[in-house]
Write a structure and sequence with these properties.
With about 260 residues, the protein is an alpha+beta fold. It contains 6 helices and 14 strands.
Length: about 260
């Protein structure tokens, strides 16, 4: 059996590496192919829910979140219409320390893969079973089908510095107008902000439209404790965006099991 992983992964994320580890412990013969071992530069998959951490425990991989400045997450704070409340994960019945953690197809039969190493040398490997775990931007998926994907919104990401969340060790969801805003720590000094922008076409970053949108529409709804750092992050201009089918999928993932 060969195991193939094409997409970039982080130390704590990826169905591919977890599957490879599990199959390896079961005595399977594996060949793991990774496209890139460098830290991925993206604005999602930075928060591992307790259910995900429990799976790490079950696999014996809990040390994956050690020594990477991972932040323990105990629940979420919700903001709407000037009111807020804190909702903690129901972790009382668990013996282990299981809070969440946040941190900085083909026509016919697939018989194997062709790939290149760093020096450009080409290799061909064949196997009875090929498993591809290359994420939502899979090139393979696009080559074998043409799914009709609607994009009603985009994620816009910023990193806030020199501030503290109102509720320590909690994600923060602002049920804003016209769409939600999310804050969570990704290190001991940084807070990720994700803004859902409900449009098929994003305001331009280059001509200042995005900065104006963030300052005039989003900033007034940001908790006062984060406002100054939010504006500073916008002025810094390091604004990232990502297509999303819906922001609700992120909110739905905020469950324990």
């Amino acid at each position: 059996m060969w195991f193939v992983q094409e997409g970039p992964s982080t130390k704590t994320e990826g169905a591919g590496v977890a599957l490879a580890y599990t199959l390896g412990k079961d005595g399977r013969r594996l060949h793991v192919i990774e496209r890139d071992l460098s830290e991925p530069d993206r604005i999602v998959s930075e928060l591992l829910q307790p259910s995900g951490y429990i799976k790490l425990l079950e696999l014996g991989l809990e040390d994956c979140v050690d020594e990477i400045d991972a932040q323990r997450i105990f629940g979420y704070a919700l903001y709407e219409d000037g009111k807020n409340t804190k909702l903690s994960y129901p972790l009382e019945n668990f013996d282990s320390d299981v809070p969440g953690r946040s941190f900085h197809n083909e026509n016919g039969t697939t018989k194997g893969v062709n790939y290149k190493n760093k020096s450009g040398q080409e290799f061909t490997t064949k196997a009875l079973l090929t498993i591809v775990c290359d994420g939502c931007f899979s090139n393979l998926r696009r080559s074998i089908c043409n799914p009709k994907v609607e994009v009603p919104s985009h994620f816009v990401g910023l990193i806030l510095e020199n501030c503290n969340l109102p509720y320590e060790n909690h994600g923060h969801v602002i049920l804003g107008d016209p769409s939600p805003i999310l804050f969570y720590p990704i290190s001991s000094t940084e807070i990720r902000c994700l803004v859902d922008v409900p449009s098929q076409k994003l305001p331009s970053v280059g001509n200042g439209e995005m900065a104006n949108y963030l300052k005039t529409v989003v900033a007034p709804q940001v908790p006062p404790e984060l406002y100054t750092s939010f504006i500073a992050a916008v002025d810094k201009g390091n604004i990232r965006s990502m297509l999303l089918a819906t922001f609700i999928r992120m909110l739905e993932s905020m469950t324990l099991l």
